[in-house]
Design brief:
The protein is of the alpha/beta class. It is 38% helix and 15% strand. The structure holds zinc ion.
Length: 218
């Protein structure tokens, strides 16, 4: 490989726009991402999914934050995952301590989805968070029914779409769990997971999402 090509391939690029950048984000995308940040870091109580004790969010799902998620899901999750804790690790650490979290778990996807080109971003995020903060990942929550894509459905159908979709095994009894997802819109998915976890005897359920989508399609 010529030095010229090697230089092009190894020059650090912005994870959002792929232009050359000193860090993981170029200056412009860094500023745009900062503008999407949820200042209070918490989803309003009125929108907190039922059975979830507290729901946190780091960004609003818009602009550079939405682009980060989309690019991570459909093109290069490694670039996103290697750097996303730099943006949000303060949030996560506080959440873990304040809520006395014992285990973390992503909102699971159905196994059929693993054959599509879409990355299971929440699962990868839970893995990175578990490793970074030395919190075990709970593997007992599964998605057992294939469902329609939530954000493609009107609000009324989102709840019935997920009926019987999740299953939680009993090795979570008495433990406080942090449920992790990339994007929350209506909160129906988190709520269904929480329902199963409560049935399995789970202690306090806390949720954290990378991006909170306040835009509701009707
Ligand atoms: Zn950029």
């Amino acid at each position: 490989m010529s030095d010229f090509i090697r230089k092009i391939l190894t020059v650090p690029k912005c994870r959002c726009c792929f232009k050359p950048a000193a860090g993981n984000l170029c200056e412009s995308c860094g500023l745009q991402l900062a503008a999407c940040r949820m200042k209070e870091g918490k989803i309003p109580d009125a929108d907190c999914p039922p059975l979830v004790d507290t729901a946190y969010g780091s960004y609003y799902y818009k602009g550079a934050a939405a682009q980060s998620v989309i690019k991570a899901k459909f093109s290069n999750p490694a670039r996103f995952l290697s750097s996303f804790l730099q943006d949000i690790s303060v949030d996560i650490n506080t959440i873990l301590v304040q809520n006395e979290i014992d285990m973390v778990r992503s909102v699971p996807c159905h196994k059929s989805k693993l054959y599509t080109c879409e990355t299971d971003l929440p699962r990868q995020m839970a893995k990175v968070i578990g490793r970074r903060f030395k919190v075990p990942v709970y593997h007992g929550l599964k998605k057992i029914k294939k469902t329609e894509i939530q954000h493609s459905l009107p609000l009324a159908k989102r709840k019935t779409n997920l009926q019987g979709a999740f299953l939680a095994q009993t090795d979570i009894a008495g433990k406080n769990l942090l449920l992790i997802d990339d994007v929350m819109t209506s909160g129906s998915t988190l709520s269904r997971c929480a329902q199963r976890l409560v049935q399995a005897g789970c202690g306090k359920i806390t949720a954290w999402v990378y991006a909170y989508n306040t835009y509701m399609e009707e």
